[in-house]
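Reading a protein record of the kind used here takes only a little practice. Think of the row as the fold of the chain written in a discrete alphabet. With that in mind, consider the following protein and its fold in token form:
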Amino acid sequence: MLPGFLARAVETLLGREGRSLHLKAAGWATLVLVVVMLLGSWAVIAAEDGAERANLTSYPKALWWSIETATTVGYGDFYPVTLWGRIIGSVVMVVGITTYGMVTAALATWFVSREQKRHRHLAHEAHELCDETARALHERFDRLEQLVTGKGERA
């Protein structure tokens, strides 16, 4: 069940047809973030292995740490103590900040484009109404002109 779900989720995020560039970029960034968090969790355990005062000693703890770091929450309950652990933490943090920025930009672009489409639709309807009103006015003026010049029929 899970692999099918993941395949559908990846297809939804990265689908080729009908997706705008900003949504594809946000999808790829999200995928990269997940991979970086999973690999970063494993790498930080390897980097912290045997270090004095190391508190990232298991994969679940390291995964929680990578989620905290990528989202910049940083509770401080887990943190790397070695140089390589801190470098890995910096990579996870930068990728997380970048991804959330891209996702936020994609959402903002989506909202703005919806509003622009609505505005264009309303403007088109207003233009059509204006054209229709102008045609009706021209017809009325033509009839009035015919009545005034005596060429029109009186009922």
Q: What stands out?
A: DSSP finds four helices and no strands in the chain. The chain has a mean pLDDT of 85. Helices lie at 2-14, 21-48, 59-70, 83-149.
